[in-house]
């Protein structure tokens, strides 16, 4: 039992009771915080008109509606109706989806209003000093609904595992686990996407100029660090800064420290695509210091060295993982394209029509099909028979050594030469 100080045996009535009591306490404390946010921020800001309605909605989104559905859930739980309570609660989970999709916008708008409006800045500081908020900032209070969803997920999972399948609430709790887990996963994905976006922006600001575009949809930041590049002619290895992303490896060098604006930035030297890259460990398998890895691209080869064996091993694993995931993704897309692609013609001999052979520069015609004969008919002064002297069709494929020599009179009287 994860929720009581004196754990009870899993599956026992006491364990379920402990979890239910803990959930009621957790939800009650959550209701108090959301109630205070609605009361001391949303309602007072609306009454005073400190912020416009659209700005208030951008900051607080659906927090009032979330407070109301949690209030209803708490009423059900206090009466012991856990299955019915969470079943009804899950019908309103779209409010959480709206809230999590807006949370980053809410933080940005809040930051702008704090800097822009002196009246709002003073109001925010005054309300945060209330004892009800326990010295928490408004930025922290806005994330509480998302934290509660994560707690609901763990609670429902453990409660379902300790509930007998014969219990009337088992099916309701099982469906609630699935629905709440989907919202919790959406919250985690949103947080990862935001963190990745911040990393991409940070790297973009570190690079000089705007020619190198780092902020690309679908690109994920993996790692960065200093590595030495080993030149092919055996000259001295030079340290370079490398940035590894999900689809590229970027090599950069530091700008001149005396540069007035770019002294703390890097200049991009080369971008290596990982799509067709292979990575090998040249040395560093033993416990000796340092290591060397080889990267082979379609048009380049790169040798990277580090004096720190742990670091070079981490780079090797990161590169292998990124390349493997990228190739796996491309393979799946390629196979789907092949399954969706429809053949132009079902006839396997359609690749040998005279028109297609002429476009490819082939001078000898191995076969004449009926379509070509019909096309030629009426354009030539003499017709071409559909059958030979033996009565067999002339469109039959012949071996090269069986092709008869062309007659002079046939070649002069017809626009089509049969070899």
TrEMBL record:
InterPro entries registered for this protein in UniProt: ARHGEF39, DBL_dom_sf, DH_dom, PH-like_dom_sf, PH_domain
GO biological process: positive regulation of cell migration
Biased composition (Polar residues): 349-360, 379-393, 409-419
DH domain segment(s): 25-190
Pfam families: RhoGEF
Region (Disordered): 343-362, 373-419
One GO CC annotation: plasma membrane
Molecular-function GO terms, alphabetical: guanyl-nucleotide exchange factor activity
PANTHER family: RHO GUANINE NUCLEOTIDE EXCHANGE FACTOR 39
Record protein name field: Rho guanine nucleotide exchange factor (GEF) 39
Organism: Cyprinus carpio
Lineage: Eukaryota, Metazoa, Chordata, Craniata, Vertebrata
């Amino acid at each position: 039992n994860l929720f009581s100080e004196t754990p009870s045996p899993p599956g026992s009535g006491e364990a379920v009771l402990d979890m239910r009591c803990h959930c009621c306490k957790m939800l009650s404390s959550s209701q108090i915080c959301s109630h205070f946010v609605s009361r001391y921020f949303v309602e007072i800001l609306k009454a005073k008109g400190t912020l416009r309605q659209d700005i208030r909605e951008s900051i607080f989104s659906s927090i009032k509606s979330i407070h109301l559905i949690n209030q209803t859930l708490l009423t059900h739980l206090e009466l012991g109706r856990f299955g019915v309570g969470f079943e009804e609660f899950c019908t309103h989970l779209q409010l959480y989806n709206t809230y999590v999709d807006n949370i980053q916008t809410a933080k940005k708008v809040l930051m702008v209003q704090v800097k822009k409006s002196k009246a709002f800045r003073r109001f925010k500081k005054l309300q945060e000093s209330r004892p009800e908020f326990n010295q928490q900032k408004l930025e922290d209070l806005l994330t509480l609904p998302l934290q509660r969803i994560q707690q609901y997920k763990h609670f429902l999972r453990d409660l379902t595992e300790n509930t007998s399948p014969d219990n009337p609430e088992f099916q309701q709790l099982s469906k609630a686990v699935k629905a709440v887990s989907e919202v919790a996963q959406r919250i985690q994905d949103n947080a990862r996407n935001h963190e990745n976006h911040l990393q991409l922006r940070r790297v973009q600001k570190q690079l000089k100029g705007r020619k190198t575009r780092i902020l690309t949809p679908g690109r994920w930041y993996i790692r960065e660090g200093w590595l030495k590049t080993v030149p092919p002619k055996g000259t001295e290895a030079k340290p370079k800064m490398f940035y590894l992303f999900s689809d590229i490896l970027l090599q950069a060098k530091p700008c001149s420290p005396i540069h007035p604006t770019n002294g703390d930035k890097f200049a991009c030297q080369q971008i290596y695509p990982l799509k067709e890259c292979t990575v090998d460990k040249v040395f560093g398998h033993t416990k000796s210091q340092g290591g060397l890895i080889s990267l082979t691209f379609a048009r380049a080869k790169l040798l990277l060295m580090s004096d720190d064996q742990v670091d070079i091993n981490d780079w090797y694993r990161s590169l292998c993982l990124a390349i493997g995931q990228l190739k796996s993704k491309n393979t799946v897309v390629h196979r789907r394209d092949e399954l969706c692609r429809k053949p132009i013609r079902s006839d396997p001999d359609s690749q040998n029509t005279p028109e297609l052979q002429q476009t490819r520069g082939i001078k000898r015609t191995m076969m004449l099909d009926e379509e070509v004969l019909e096309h030629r008919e009426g354009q030539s002064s003499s017709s071409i028979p559909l059958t030979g002297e033996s009565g067999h069709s002339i469109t039959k494929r012949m071996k090269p050594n069986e092709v008869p020599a062309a007659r002079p009179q046939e070649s002069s009287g017809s626009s089509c030469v049969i070899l």
